[in-house]
Design brief:
heterodimer; A: 261 residues; alpha+beta; outer membrane lipoprotein receptor (LolB), chain A; 4 helices; 13 strands; 16% helix; globular; disordered N terminus; B: 558 residues; mainly beta; Immunoglobulin-like; Porin; 2 domains; 18-stranded antiparallel beta barrel; five-stranded antiparallel beta sheet; elongated
Chain lengths: 261, 558
């Protein structure tokens, strides 16, 4: 009798835990999945990007990079970034194999030593090149990386939006949660509020100047990140997007990393 | 990547996929049209051979005719719609080649790109018709004359056309680096640095006439150019030292031509290669000779003449090196610091087994999950000489560097587990006295975001062992390295690496600190400090135990 009493609540828990998602969770996942679907199939692209870093006093610093991205079916994207500015790191390159589940694989190429270093990729919350973007903000956004919850519909600058909350699955994430505004017309992220580990509002990312490529894929040419706690900001500008230039796995190897210039 | 070429093609949005007619003689693997979002109409032709020879074209506003070489003949003639107002036909011409004709209703300009192997095809030709223009443009033939000599027509697909050559101000921002992204016909790129280094010693040297504190200037510019699948790099190095003539010299660190294809790579010239994973001592790194006068830390290397070929496959990367021309190790002169009690007479080096014409090396490297591994074998003149007492040409006692023919097999491996990096290097060397083995290994553990900041703190520990014990030609026979690496992750990219290497047996210790930060976009400040403690008179380090120094370097990057 005592045994069965114990068993009943346990089994209830076991059954309810995985399916505890309510309608808000279902709706949130549905929206995120639709947004992901709409960005699937681009195959590969190259782009140039620059980051304008500004501190609370207004001092500016510039980073320039080139990137190439390969879509990987069934897993996270492969990315190669080569730095052009600041000049002391010119030629430094970073190869990342993102994974939907688990830590990413990451190699750093140091051109002065001609050395490729496998680096620990768990440091997702660290700043990317001293900017307000962390590695996890810039890595490929996979459905599996978050839990989702639909919050509300809202109008942002005259456009109807879905507002969803997503909670990082990775315990090494720098965030407890993110609130994402997606436009209802195209499911593009327009704004993200990031909440730190203490659940205080940390940063806001605003997307603008969206442009469509191959009649399907939307890319924001400008992404503005402001840190509310420090007053620092980073304007990330993208240009020269080229889709389907014919990249394949061979362009994302340690040897390819060494060849990058 | 499991997305097949066919699926990728079928996914093309805003265009249509034209299946290759079966009647093609096999030379043309596929044709397809893509309508790009900026109004460019693109015809992609995949062929089963490298596209060689000249593509001769005649251009007019609405009709573009391009003659293809003999190897690319579709049979029979083929034609169709490429976009609503663009028609394409490919047919054999009277001279044994074939002709591509692109007609559009409106005036469009044409760019042609010739690409190397990708996917299943050995070559690809891309024809980009610009968006329709106002019909006021005069004849285009002049503007689209033959490509630069020796270089295939190259430009960047999907670039909004018409576009003039890349402006000079863009030289710092080249197109993406790999062979697959097509570089513009850019001139030589330039980068590098100029530096001024001031070195201050805390004591006078142990030997009479050794230099004191002083200034050194260094320059390391790099010129490179990429086209098609090729890269050409030239990286000279020049140093001037206020006191030490041996330290005023010029070297070619790199003068290398490199071609990369689908899964292979070849290179010829003077190059630099790094093998290994550890931080304190680079045991397996054997290709390049160490430049001991640029910096006593052994991290500076001389350029090495080489032919190199690499194969990248599922089972890893196999690289073969053939190295003509051996380079002798540099040593400080009589007045230089960090010297042995007797000066090393680099003018009278000896070769115990004769001077080998060619040195050879083979290396397999791969990564499997968290493990990065490399196994290599080197056969040739050892980079590390045995120093033997002798007399120089003036009859003064000196150390003669004696180079031996060695065989060295090496292993290097790193396991990356969360915030832990586990590292191991090991060698077995024969030909230099008794066969011996040596190893170094340890870990680097990173504490992320220490004290609620953005900074990371790495803790490093490595052990060095050499089976020759006290007879070892290196200082690292039974030593322990402990270090800390602080990375601020700030705008200035500030880092500090500090550590101590301690001889397990006699307690001799070497302290080492390297710190750097950036100022603005182009300036960098670097501080190095080295000091030696508790060095017994019989230790190999005794000669340099009074050479504690601090060096402050300011570098301007271009």
């Amino acid at each position: 009798m005592r045994k069965s009493l114990l068993l009943i609540p346990l089994s209830l828990f076991a059954f309810t835990a995985p399916v505890s998602a309510g309608p808000a969770e279902d709706r949130g996942l549905e929206i995120a999945t639709e947004a992901d679907q709409r960005d699937t199939g681009f195959h590969d692209f190259t782009a140039e990007l620059s980051m304008l870093l500004k501190n609370a006093q207004g001092t500016e610093s510039l980073r320039e990079m080139r990137t190439q991205v390969l879509e990987v079916e069934g897993d996270g994207d492969k990315t190669l970034i080569v730095f052009d500015q600041p000049r002391d790191v010119a030629g430094t390159a970073l190869l990342t194999f993102t994974h939907k589940v688990g830590a990413d694989d990451q190699w750093l190429y140091l051109p002065a030593l001609k050395r490729v270093k496998r680096i620990a990729s768990r440091n997702k919350s660290g700043p990317f090149m001293g900017s307000e973007f962390s590695y996890e903000d810039l890595s490929s956004q996979e459905i599996e990386k978050y839990g989702y919850r639909y919050l509300r519909d809202e109008t942002l600058e005259g456009q109807p939006m879905f507002v969803i909350e997503r909670d990082p699955v990775d315990e090494n994430s720098g965030y407890t949660r993110q609130v994402v505004w997606l436009d209802q017309a195209e499911y593009r992220p327009m704004k993200i509020d990031f909440y730190d580990r203490k659940n205080a509002l940390l940063k806001t990312l605003t997307y603008s100047e969206y442009k469509q490529y191959l009649d399907k894929y939307w890319r924001a040419n400008r992404m503005f990140m402001i840190n509310h706690q420090t007053g620092k900001s980073t304007l990330l500008s993208w240009r020269d997007y080229k889709f389907r230039v014919g990249l394949d796995d061979g362009d994302f190897t340690k040897n390819a990393l060494k060849r990058s210039r | 990547m499991t997305l097949s070429r066919r699926v990728a093609a079928a996914l093309l949005v805003g265009g249509c996929y034209i299946a290759a007619p079966q009647a093609f003689a096999g030379e043309v693997l596929g044709l397809r049209c893509i309508g790009l979002s900026d109004g460019v109409v693109r015809l992609v032709v995949d062929v089963d051979d490298r596209v060689q020879g000249r593509l001769i074209r005649q251009a007019a506003d609405t009709v573009h005719r391009i003659r293809l070489p003999r190897t690319l003949v579709p049979r029979p003639a083929w034609g169709g719609e490429c976009a609503a107002d663009v028609r394409v036909s490919i047919a054999q011409d009277s001279r044994g080649g074939s002709r591509v004709v692109l007609r559009s209703d409106a005036s469009r300009s044409l760019k042609i790109y010739r690409l190397g192997p990708r996917g299943g095809a050995a070559g690809r030709i891309v024809f980009d018709l610009s968006p329709p223009r106002m019909p006021t443009r005069p004849d285009l033939a002049a503007a689209e004359s033959a490509p630069p000599a020796g270089v295939a027509e190259q430009a960047r697909p999907a670039a909004p056309t018409p576009e003039p050559a890349v402006p000079a101000t863009r030289s710092a921002v080249q197109p993406a680096p790999s062979r697959a992204s097509v570089p513009a016909p850019t001139p030589w790129h330039f980068r590098g640095y100029l530096g001024a280094e001031a070195r201050g010693f805390s004591q006078t040297g142990r030997f009479p006439g050794q230099q004191g504190s002083g200034l050194s200037l260094v320059a390391e510019p790099e010129f490179y150019r990429t086209w098609d699948d090729d890269t050409l790099v030239f990286r000279p190095y020049a140093r001037w030292d206020q006191h030490d003539d041996e330290r005023s010299y010029v070297d070619v660190r790199e003068l290398l031509w490199l071609r990369a294809g689908d899964g292979w790579e070849i290179a010829a010239g003077i190059g630099k290669v790094f093998w290994g994973v550890t931080e304190a001592y680079h045991l397996v790194d054997v290709i390049n000779q160490t430049d001991l006068i640029a910096n006593p830390d052994g991290e500076q290397k001389l350029g090495q003449p080489m032919l190199r070929g690499a194969l990248e496959r599922d089972w890893g990367t196999l690289t073969l090196f053939a190295m003509p021309g051996f380079r002798e190790r540099t040593y400080p002169g009589r007045s230089g610091r960090f010297r042995t009690p007797l000066v090393v007479d680099t003018d009278n080096a000896q070769y115990r087994d004769g001077r080998s014409q060619w040195d050879w090396a083979v290396r397999w490297s791969h990564y499997i999950g968290d493990l990065d591994i490399g196994i290599a074998h080197f056969h040739g003149t050892g980079r590390e000489p045995t120093l033997q007492p002798g007399l120089d040409s003036a009859g003064r006692p000196v150390l003669i560097p004696v180079y031996e023919l060695i065989d060295q097999t090496s292993l290097d491996a790193q396991l990356t587990r969360g915030d832990w990096l586990w590292k191991l290097e090991a060698i077995r060397r024969s030909g230099q006295g008794r066969t011996f083995w040596a190893t170094t290994g340890g870990f680097e553990y990173t504490l992320v975001g220490i004290a609620d900041s953005d900074a990371d703190l790495g803790v490093l520990a490595e052990y060095m062992y050499d089976s020759r014990g006290e007879d070892a030609t290196t200082a690292f026979n039974r030593d322990v390295f402990l270090g800390l690496r602080w990375t601020a992750n700030d705008v200035a990219g500030s880092t500090v690496l500090a550590g101590v290497i301690r001889d397990w047996d006699n307690g001799a210790s070497a302290f080492n600190l390297e710190a750097s930060r950036r100022f603005g976009q182009r300036w960098k400040l670097q501080v190095q400090a080295r000091a030696w403690f508790d060095v017994p008179a019989e230790d190999i380090l005794a000669a340099i135990a009074r050479d504690d120094y601090v060096e402050i370097g300011i570098y301007r990057y271009f």
